[in-house]
């Protein structure tokens, strides 16, 4: 292999463009959330690929007589957060699950998944939802960050309360902060992590490339 094609930054730019177009009530927020999540997953996949983590995993599993298919980035059933764990473990990043960047990234991926795999909302008499979907993340956005209105009040669908500029801005800042955080957590003073370093430069504007 002589190299690889990195296209994930396109998704970041799409998320950013729709964030700029979003207003107080805008479907552009949906695009920002989904494309920001697509971008950060592409970054993780690049890190696994570029740093040959899969090769190391296969070698280790082969030596122990174990299968590694559940860690393969080309296996579409592998959960995103499993990939994050894989990268951090093999780059000796230490504990990370209590970091605010990880917590917000987890909420972003949850929100993205509920949008992409949207399910019907049953309503009780009076217009209250029968079941509170995406409850943990929406509660976090409502009570912790205070960037959405109450998603479960009478006559309101949860997808309506997230289509705001504030949510679009949050999704973009979440992945921007996540890239910088991943770089700091995995940085090797001798070599650095090329994937996270490159994306940190791109998302911070330090390269001058837009």
Describe this structure in words.
- The chain is mainly alpha-helical and 210 residues long.
- It is built from nine helices and no strands.
- The chain has helices at residues 8-21, 28-50, 53-64, 80-90, 100-116, 135-144, 158-161, 165-186, 194-204.
- Helix 1 (8-21) runs antiparallel to helix 2 (28-50).
- The two termini are 28 Å apart.
- The mean pLDDT is 81.
Shape from CA axes?
globular
Approximate helicity band: 55-70%
What oligomeric state is this? single chain
Structure classification: mainly alpha
Strand content: under 5%
N→C terminal distance: 28 Å
What number is the mean pLDDT?
Answer: 81
Task: Briefly summarize what is shown.
With 210 residues, this protein is an all-alpha fold. It has helices at 8-21, 28-50, 53-64, 80-90, 100-116, 135-144, 158-161, 165-186, 194-204.
Topology diagram in text:
Blueprint: H1 8-21, H2 28-50, H3 53-64, H4 80-90, H5 100-116, H6 135-144, H7 158-161, H8 165-186, H9 194-204
Q: Main traits of this protein?
A:
210 residues, mainly alpha, 9 helices, 59% helix
């Amino acid at each position: 292999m002589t190299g690889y094609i990195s296209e994930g930054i396109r998704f970041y730019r799409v998320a950013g463009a729709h964030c700029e177009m979003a207003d107080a009530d805008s479907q552009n927020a949906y695009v920002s959330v989904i494309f920001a999540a697509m971008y950060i997953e592409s970054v993780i996949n690049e890190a696994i690929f570029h740093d040959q983590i899969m090769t190391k995993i296969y070698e280790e599993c082969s030596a122990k007589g174990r299968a590694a298919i559940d860690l393969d980035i080309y296996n579409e059933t592998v959960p995103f957060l499993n990939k994050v764990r894989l990268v951090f473990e093999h780059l000796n990043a230490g504990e990370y699950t209590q970091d605010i960047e990880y917590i917000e990234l987890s909420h972003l991926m949850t929100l993205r998944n509920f949008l992409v795999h949207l399910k019907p909302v049953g309503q009780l008499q009076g217009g209250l939802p029968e079941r509170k979907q995406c409850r943990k993340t929406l509660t976090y956005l409502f009570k912790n960050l205070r960037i959405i209105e109450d998603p479960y009040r009478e006559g309101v669908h949860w997808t309506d309360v997230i289509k705001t500029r504030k949510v679009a801005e949050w999704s973009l800042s979440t992945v921007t902060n996540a890239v910088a955080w991943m770089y700091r957590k995995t940085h090797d003073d001798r070599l650095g992590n090329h994937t996270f370093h490159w994306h940190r430069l791109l998302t911070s504007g330090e390269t001058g490339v837009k």
